[in-house]
Write a structure and sequence with these properties.
By secondary structure, this protein is mainly β. It has a domain of about 140 residues. The chain is built from 4 helices and 34 strands. A hairpin with a 6-residue loop joins β26 and β27. The radius of gyration is 24 Å and the shape is globular.
Length: about 425
């Protein structure tokens, strides 16, 4: 009797514990969407049925907003959760419409809908869309049309224009067409309690423009002839500076001490610089059509760089059928236990097929191994974005230019690492 009881106990334990093996979470594959982005380690994405959040660690999907997006004039959508996740911002653009709305995450109800037209008025023949709206704190947002930057309290409705008022200046690009030339607040980054942004305010003048910082008290010019790229943390950012005519170098700026340090004097390849999950800065260098590319890992704390030979087309993929090799784009990198994996693409011209064939590749700095991530056939454009933790990668697959929809899938970084061993 005691023996039978022990057997039944073992069976029950096996059923409830799975012999100690954790069930693998199946990641999404070929989900059709119009937007997909990481926020913390949640993937926010929009489909024709609404806006969703996906947590890859436990496979949980939640519906943020239920809406028939397919019936609306929307060809671009962006979504940002508040720091406490209680609210979120939805920005949409269509052929004839531009909307900004703050909604409640729990009730799916609108908290505030902004009148975007009032932020877009009076800029000559060009009416810039509201394209960037993000959180300063749980009750305060900043909004930029590139020509004006505002700080808005969503509870009280109080708003302050950070930038000085822009002049309605445009430049003629043909006999009867005018296009925007200037930008008052582009690529706005919150660092500490200030907003930092790129600005070009003098037409027909050489140089890149300037980097400004501002808050509710106004704005100040910080660096001349400089272009803001990305924020490293609350006290440092990366920027480009034209040090000589046609010579652009990349620098790290420390806000706390007001000092710059050179990252690289070489021109980075397409897509520029990314920040890894462990805080390093990564980029790629080389000749766009040279077929030989290097990866650089820059430590912003020590100022030291590690340079690795990532790709040599003739060496790594010898093929008599290939006539030309050129760089596609750099998509970022992730780190794990001292290993860094670069994600990028190259385009090789096939003489037999008479077309460029794109390959999407991953390179490990530990094993010095290069692998093809996946065979995406004739897909027009594939892009990859690494989650902040470095544990997951969302892959978006676009079929053709002008098609707003795409398919996405989520990959586990560990799966790539196993292939790269």
């Amino acid at each position: 009797m005691r023996k039978k009881l022990c057997v039944w106990l073992c069976i029950i334990l096996i059923i409830f514990t799975g012999c100690g093996n954790k069930r693998e979470t199946e990641q999404p594959k070929d989900v059709r969407a119009i937007s997909a982005k990481w926020q913390d380690d949640q993937l926010l994405y929009a489909t024709s049925d609404g806006i969703f959040t996906y947590s890859p660690a436990d496979g949980r999907t939640e519906n943020l907003m239920s809406d028939d997006i397919a019936k609306k004039d929307i060809n671009w959508l962006n979504c940002n959760l508040s720091p406490d996740k209680s609210k979120y911002i939805v920005i949409t653009m269509g052929h004839y419409d531009n909307t900004v709305e703050i909604r409640d995450s729990e009730t799916d109800q609108a908290v505030l809908q902004l009148d975007v037209d009032k932020y877009r008025e009076g800029v000559g023949d060009y009416s810039p869309p509201v394209g960037q709206v993000e959180w300063l704190d749980n009750d305060t947002i900043f909004l930029s049309t590139e020509f004006r930057l505002f700080i808005i309290n969503i509870k009280t409705g109080d708003e302050i224009q950070v930038t000085e008022e822009c002049s309605p200046v445009t430049t003629r690009v043909s006999h009867n067409t005018e296009a925007p030339y200037l930008s008052w607040a582009f690529n706005v980054k919150k660092m500490g309690d200030k907003l930092y942004y790129y600005s070009k305010r003098q037409p027909k003048t050489p140089g890149l423009g300037s980097i400004y910082y501002g808050d509710k008290t106004g704005e100040h010019e910080l660096l001349k002839n400089a272009w803001l790229l990305l924020a490293v943390d609350d006290k440092r950012f990366v920027y480009l500076k034209e040090t000589k005519p046609d010579v652009t170098e990349t620098f790290l700026y420390d806000i706390s001490i007001g000092s710059s340090s050179l990252i690289t004097a070489e021109r980075c390849l397409e897509e520029g610089i990314f920040r890894t999950n462990e805080g390093k800065l990564v980029f790629m260098t080389g000749n766009m059509t040279g077929g030989v590319y290097q990866g650089v890992i820059y430590n912003p704390d020590t100022g030291q760089s590690q340079i690795v030979d990532i790709y040599n087309g003739e060496r790594d993929f010898p093929d008599q059928d290939i006539d030309q090799r050129q760089f596609g784009h750099f998509m970022g990198a992730f780190e794990q236990d001292g290993e860094c994996v670069f994600l990028f693409s190259v385009e090789n011209y096939s003489k037999s097929q008479e077309k460029y064939i794109e390959e999407y590749l991953a390179y490990s700095t530990r094993s010095n191994k290069l692998i093809e991530i996946g065979d995406y056939g004739d897909t027009w454009l594939v892009n990859m974005s690494v989650s902040p933790s470095g544990d997951y990668i969302v892959v978006t697959k676009h079929n053709r230019p002008g098609d707003d929809d795409f398919l996405f899938e989520v990959l586990k970084s560990d799966d790539l690492l196993r292939q790269l061993q």
